[in-house]
Prior knowledge:
CATH class of chain B: Alpha Beta
Oligomer: heterodimer
CATH architecture of chain B: 3-Layer(aba) Sandwich
CATH architecture of chain A: Beta Barrel
Radius of gyration of chain A: 15 Å
Number of strands of chain B: 11
Strand order of the largest sheet of chain A: 6-5-4-7-8
Number of helices of chain B: 13
Number of helices of chain A: 1
Number of strands of chain A: 8
Shape of chain B: globular
Order of helices and strands of chain B: EHEHEHEHHHHEEEHEHEHHHHEE
Distance between the termini of chain B: 21 Å
Low-confidence stretches of chain B: none
Low-confidence stretches of chain A: none
Strand content of chain B: 15-25%
Structural class of chain B: alpha/beta
Number of domains of chain A: 1
Strand order of the largest sheet of chain B: 1-7-4-2-3
Largest sheet of chain A: 5 strands, antiparallel
Helix content of chain A: under 10%
Largest sheet of chain B: 5 strands, mixed
Shape of chain A: globular
CATH superfamily of chain B: Thiolase/Chalcone synthase
Amino acid sequence: xxxxxxxxxxxxxxxxxxxxxxxxxxxxxxxxxxxxxxxxxxxxxxxxxxxxxxxxxxxxxxxxxxxxxxxxxxxxxxxxxxxxxxxxxxxxxxxxxxxxxxxxxxxxxxxxxxxxxxxxxxx
Amino acid sequence: xxxxxxxxxxxxxxxxxxxxxxxxxxxxxxxxxxxxxxxxxxxxxxxxxxxxxxxxxxxxxxxxxxxxxxxxxxxxxxxxxxxxxxxxxxxxxxxxxxxxxxxxxxxxxxxxxxxxxxxxxxxxxxxxxxxxxxxxxxxxxxxxxxxxxxxxxxxxxxxxxxxxxxxxxxxxxxxxxxxxxxxxxxxxxxxxxxxxxxxxxxxxxxxxxxxxxxxxxxxxxxxxxxxxxxxxxxxxxxxxxxxxxxxxxxxxxxxxxxxxxxxxxxxxxxxxxxxxxxxxxxxxxxxxxxxxxxxxxxxxxxxxxxxxxxxxxxxxxxxxxxxxxxxxxxxxxxxxxxxxxxxxxxxxxxxxxxxxxxxxxxxxxxxxxxxxxxxxxxxxxxxxxxxxx
Lengths: 123, 389
């Protein structure tokens, strides 16, 4: 079972991402966006949340480049224009040039097994 | 209701092994239980409460009480990662105060070194059913880069330097040189730490804790029982616990849940950080110590780097001696869970039984604090304040 297959709650996110759309979950009562997406708003606990199209724009909150592996990679927290901060990878960049506060944009990356993942690249 | 003065740590034992290829995990649990009972001067039949964390094999406490053949009337398997055992002391004191048990046994054991589950570099293999899994695991969330994210942000916001983080390891090595059981006994310098290989920015190899087999156990007893034993009296006077997480996306890596568990514990104990003579503070990585010391109020937020520098954590030299057994950074990190050894060294200090080279003079109040889980995603904090009577 893949990590992304097991929850009907967020199935639409992964299907949309495979089609090139990045969705963000927002509360229909308090209007705040949250991350990771949930059926119950983590702020006001309303049961009414909905998918909205995300801008795919954000800034790096923090990052760390894993060096001691065959293929180094940059894990990061990116703060989305919509408000919440999400874990991701920064790709297609020189790791040594990354900095906190840097503007990034969504870059949907397909993993070897075909799964699309929401990653980011310098804007 | 308060737990202040309601229970004592009557027994404490750290397994001397750091590599146990020929023992089972359950066996290690039982061996540390034997050690703690012997230390207290009690027997197995005195135990009527049992506490364990997620390292215990089996469903909660069930397989372990079976293996050790314990007849208990109270169990608690609260699992908040490596900080569990610090919380267990408080829970045991609560249970004793409520009349649920008289003598509580807490055990921890694991064999990550023998089992080859070593390292903070491989991506974590948590349960795929946990709701956060799909939003972290595909991005290569490991242990070391989760803490790297925190350290990078701390450096960015407060100007903390790699050299300041390194001082935490240097201080731990000063203590570990006196511990014959420690995994790393050589003194290290700031330069050696910052020139050790970069694992995940900005964490170098020597910013990391050791990987070791082993375990530890504690006996928490009702006052009437503890006072009839021959050991020095170490009293529980305050405790606090709290989880912290991503807060719906309001991620803030600059502080830990110690900002909540710490004040709760200090208020219950009726003391201030300045009253604490010795701290055991969880040291999975050097950054963990810096953030927790700030959050516990030993220095202002953001000043942890300068605070730990220049030997300030070295016993006999600095203002706040810490982890005088060498901590997780040099001595022992059994089962990848450092909370148990934190309490044990605090007990040694309060009893006056730490190594003479690191024993804190007039150590009457000690604090043990842990962070379990990952500082960079979600974690549980537990703070415990102990007093020598």
